[in-house]
Amino acid sequence: NHLSQMQAMTSTSWLFAVVDRIAASAAAVPWRLFKSLPDGQARLVGQHVIKDLWASVNPFYTRHEFIETSVQHFELTGEIWWLIVRNGSGKPVELWNIRPDRIRPVPSSKDFVAGYIYKIGNVEIPLQRTDVIFIRRPSPLDPYRGIGTVQSMMVDLGAESMAASFTRNFFTNGAMPGGILQFDEG
């Protein structure tokens, strides 16, 4: 599940190092906005509402933190979820990361996705399709969700965690074997 995939980063040092390096590198990229021209060329855009939003995604996250969190989610679960907050006139004014374990698509036979449900605790908040940006590494099993690299490693990560616990307990107990072997002299 998505929660255990994200928690794996906090308990496996090499996984933390890998995901952190990828996320920090992606966040360090200088972002620019280009406009496609009819002749196939592209022109760098100076002022634009999207550039302003990208420069200051919300009052609590820097753009760097926002991108790092997004990439962490992507590497661990194969999904990035962003909530768009709009002002009274409908202009996007904030972007927020949504934890993949707290959101689910609402399937629709007509539109594929009718909307989304964001759940925190026991509270379920319906979200409109137009207020959510969903980026995913497509899952071969679920057309509504993504698949993370960590998902394929969960058994190995569990075994590594158990081996680390065994080793820690072995040394905590004075590195002594847990029993005595006795042989009859014969």
Commentary on this structure:
With 186 residues, this protein is of the alpha+beta class. It is 35% helix and 25% strand. The strands form 3 sheets. It has a 3-stranded antiparallel sheet with strand order 4-3-8. Strands 5-6-7 form a 3-stranded antiparallel sheet, with no helix packed on it. The protein is elongated. The termini are far apart. The mean pLDDT is 89.
Question: What order do the helices and strands come in, and which of them pair?
Answer:
Layout: H1 2-11, H2 13-27, E1 34-36, E2 42-44, H3 49-55, H4 63-77, E3 79-86, E4 92-97, E5 103-108, E6 112-120, E7 123-128, E8 132-136, H5 154-172
Antiparallel strand pairs: 1-2, 3-4, 3-8, 5-6, 6-7
Helix pairs in contact: 1-2, 1-4, 2-4
Radius of gyration: 23 Å
Mean pLDDT: 89
* Secondary-structure element pattern, one letter each: HHEEHHEEEEEEH
Strand content: 15-25%
**Termini Cα gap:** 57 Å
Helix content: 25-40%
Care to count the β-strands?
A: 8
Q: How many H/I helices?
A: 5
What overall geometry do the principal axes of the alpha carbons give?
elongated
Low-pLDDT runs of 5+ residues are none
- Report the biggest beta sheet as strand number plus sense, adding barrel if it closes: 3 strands, antiparallel
The helix-and-strand class reads alpha+beta
| Sequence of strands across the biggest β-sheet | 4-3-8
